[in-house]
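REVIEWER CHECKLIST
Item 1: Sequence provided? yes
Item 2: Single chain? yes
Item 3: Sequence as submitted:
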Amino acid sequence: PSGVVTDYFRNGQIQFTGKVLQDRPKPVYDGKVSWYHQNGTKKVIAVFEKGVFQKLEGAWLADGTPADPNYLALYNKGLTHYDEGQFAEARPLLERTLEHMDVLKGKKNKDFTTVARLLVEVLMLLEDYNQAFARSEELVGLDLRLLPTGDTTTLYDISTWSAMATLSKSDDAVLERISQVGLREARHSADVSWRVPYLVDLG
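Item 4: Structure as written out by the authors:
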């Protein structure tokens, strides 16, 4: 679509509103455009001129807190707690770091996946397998978009996703889907050691 566009999340909340000159092969925005969180709060207001970014007017987390460009300070505090074995203290700092990064940089970048991977490890150590599974699933989805097919980082994350699915007692359909993704990626891997099934049985 082109012209003034309003896009919606599946839950009916507005996701985006603004002028779009064209939407393919990628959107070309013009004027002031706004993105929203799924809970209905504003996420980003930015100004474009015929597809060229001009300025950021505001960015907020889902709870309405202004997004902080200095999110690395949060990450470093979380990393310090992690290094000291204080995983419960590290968790909220890493989660908050990812919230700020999502708003200001988006998820489709190496910095986001690096922090997300550390958070998955923290969640595993805290034995919160349901959250570790959800984060692992998101991480694999990002890997598949960002990394070459068969990349060993993706295969590592798929293995973690599979293990967390088992520990969180996911149903057979989920386990089968993970196995299929893992096997498909493994077929394209140059590393022979990864060419094994990804359905992990931890008893």
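Item 5: Key structural point noted by reviewer: The two ends are 51 Å apart (CA to CA).
Item 6: Recommendation: ____
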